[in-house]
Design a protein that fits this description.
By secondary structure, this protein is an alpha/beta fold. The chain has one domain: Rossmann fold (3-Layer(aba) Sandwich), CATH 3.40.50. The protein is built from 14 helices and 8 strands. The chain has an 8-stranded mixed β-sheet, with helices on both faces. Helix 1 crosses helix 8, helix 3 packs across helix 13 and helix 9 packs parallel to helix 10. The chain is globular.
Length: 283
């Protein structure tokens, strides 16, 4: 594990000197909206005037490109196989962000020649010098690749939903981070919350157990309330923050971006009720 983390830290060496901030977004299970948050958060940070690179590091079920309605000809896999350079696969300034598309299907990092990995490291180091934020969207669950990208990041953001299985699996990944001492703190986002009370209760369940058994600090970064605009945008293959900028979910993600930029934590009250929706429509 330590060796894996050290190799992946090499991908982004020097970030403290350049001032860029690396955020790895992870989840204990799939279906919690991790990739949707990654994409929309990257755009939200871009809207705030930041230079953002999003890296699809889900080596088996990459779908950042699908969320954006893109069909990349080449992916990160082609770079690691030595068939393409990073410059040839990277998608620049799409919706204000830069994208390193991932690969779908079985991926065996052990089969990638060392010379190709080192070439990628050099290219990443050169390309990311001008970035303010690097968002790494990992695969769901716990694997050496996921834990390595978490270890390589400045901050780790864990996404959960109010469902019991999501809370349990979210705690599971936090437990592993504590065991290997990869981070002293993790940020928590509750997605698909019905209301503020449900979001707070979901976070509290993880905080209570973590405070009792783990040596890790849980910080509430934000909450995204249930919003039909999210499902519609996924079907339309367009980020909801672009397609539905006045939606509840878009406002929630903008708030999370603000919290990240200004180093704030805490949940906020949603506006998911009839009166406030009516005011929004009248505007």
């Amino acid at each position: 594990m330590a060796d894996q983390a050290e190799k992946l830290r090499g991908l982004f060496s020097g970030n403290k000197k350049t001032g860029k901030r690396i955020i790895t977004i992870a989840s204990g299970k799939g279906g919690v909206g991790k990739t949707s948050l990654s994409v929309n958060l990257a755009i939200a940070l871009s809207k705030a005037g930041k230079k953002v690179l999003i890296m699809d590091a889900d080596m088996g079920m990459a779908n950042v490109d699908i969320m954006l309605g893109l069909t990349p000809r080449y992916t990160l896999y082609d770079v690691l196989r030595g068939q393409k350079s990073l410059r040839e696969i990277i998608i620049e300034d799409f919706e204000g962000i830069n994208i390193i598309p991932g690969c779908s299907g079985i991926f065996e990092a052990a089969n990638i020649q060392r010379i190709h990995r080192e070439a990628l490291i050099q290219e990443l180091e050169y390309y990311t010098q001008s970035m303010d934020f690097i968002i790494i969207d990992t695969g769901a669950g716990i694997s050496n690749i996921v834990l390595g990208f978490i270890a390589a990041a400045d901050d780790v953001l864990i996404v959960i939903t109010p469902e019991p299985t999501s809370i349990t699996d979210g705690y599971g990944i936090i437990k592993v981070l504590s065991k290997f001492k990869l981070h002293k703190k993790v940020y928590l986002v509750v997605n698909m919350a019905g209301n503020l009370q449900e979001a707070q209760e979901s976070a509290r369940k993880i905080e209570t157990v973590a405070n009792k058994y783990l040596e890790i600090n849980i910080r509430r970064l934000g909450v995204i309330y249930s919003d039909n605009s999210v499902k519609k945008s996924i079907k339309e293959m367009t980020p909801f923050i672009k397609k539905y900028p006045r939606s509840q979910a878009a406002r929630d993600v903008m708030k999370i971006a603000e919290n990240i930029i200004e180093h704030k934590v805490g949940f906020h009250m949603g506006t998911n009720n009839f009166a406030q929706k009516l005011i929004g429509l009248l505007k």
